[in-house]
Write a structure and sequence with these properties.
The chain is α/β, with parallel strands linked by helices. It has 6 helices and 13 strands. A 7-stranded mixed sheet has the order 1-2-3-4-5-6-7, with no helix packed on it. It has a 6-stranded mixed sheet with strand order 8-9-10-11-12-13. The chain binds zinc ion. This is MBL fold metallo-hydrolase.
């Protein structure tokens, strides 16, 4: 599997996966690597990890899952030794019923159903739910995990790399299409989540969307304004709009 990596800062890389264009990122310190999201299946993630091992000698000790959608989490079983982090409240999305929904969503979006079922069967709840913020020491580099949702989902986690002035946003920000709001989104809270994201990264940061090219604070602010307009009424059905190329539960 040929993957293309960008290096937005020294020791920070990300790839945009083929198919759904979701971001998987990696942040390396001198002691450990943090993976940001796990991709849509364990075969893809195994290939990702091969690439990362060639690039970084440090072990991938941590996995931050920005939110529980199939294209970001079903690859997690390929990395069983990592400590997994989610935003608060995400553990309840690991029940057999919720995992069956995840598989159904993956299949509806064209993923291999057998592979999705196998991965979901091995997907276990996160060890750590981040309540507000948590700081990880990767060796010579600290990263901040922040629970800024609800917004795109009930549990949205973002990852700030202060020394690189970079924030991984998950699907709270999308550049390659309109942000997806499915039935598990909290449209009325989304703008506030982006306010928290902007407060974390500040004006100078670069923001890595869940889908699409790296953007600046101005882009995030404009998307915040669009979302606020789009969901002013927060009416049923408002969640049906979105980028058809971008997978989303219930979209
Ligand atoms: Zn999503």
């Amino acid at each position: 599997m040929q993957l293309t990596w960008e290096e937005p800062a020294p020791g920070v890389v990300r790839t945009r996966l083929r198919g759904w264009d979701e971001t998987v990122g990696a942040i390396a310190g001198t002691e450990a690597v943090l993976l940001v999201d796990a991709g849509p299946d364990s075969v893809t993630t195994a290939a990702l990890l091969d690439d990362l091992r060639a690039r970084f000698p440090q072990p991938v000790r941590h996995l931050a899952l920005t939110h529980i959608h199939f294209d970001h989490v079903l690859g997690a079983p390929a990395l069983p030794s990592a400590t997994r982090y989610t935003a608060k409240g995400a553990r309840q999305l690991f029940t057999p019923e919720a995992l069956a929904d995840l598989v159904a969503d993956a299949t509806a979006h064209g993923a291999d159903g057998d592979q999705a079922r196998r991965d979901a069967a091995r997907l276990t709840p996160p060890e750590v739910e981040v309540d507000s913020t948590a700081t990880l020491d990767l060796g010579g580099r600290h990263v901040v995990l922040a629970s800024v949702g609800p917004g795109h989902t009930a549990s949205d986690l973002v990852v700030h790399v202060p020394d690189a002035d970079l924030v991984f946003c998950g699907d709270l920000v999308e550049e390659s299409g309109e942000p997806q709001a499915g039935k598990d989104a909290h449209p009325a809270r989304w703008a506030a989540a982006l306010d928290a994201l902007l407060a974390l990264g500040g004006e100078s940061a670069r923001y890595v969307p869940g889908h699409g090219a790296v953007v600046d604070a101005g882009f995030v602010r404009a998307q915040r304004a669009d979302l606020a307009r789009r969901f002013t009424a927060d009416t049923p059905g408002s969640a049906a709009r979105g980028n058809p190329a971008s997978p989303h539960r219930g979209a």
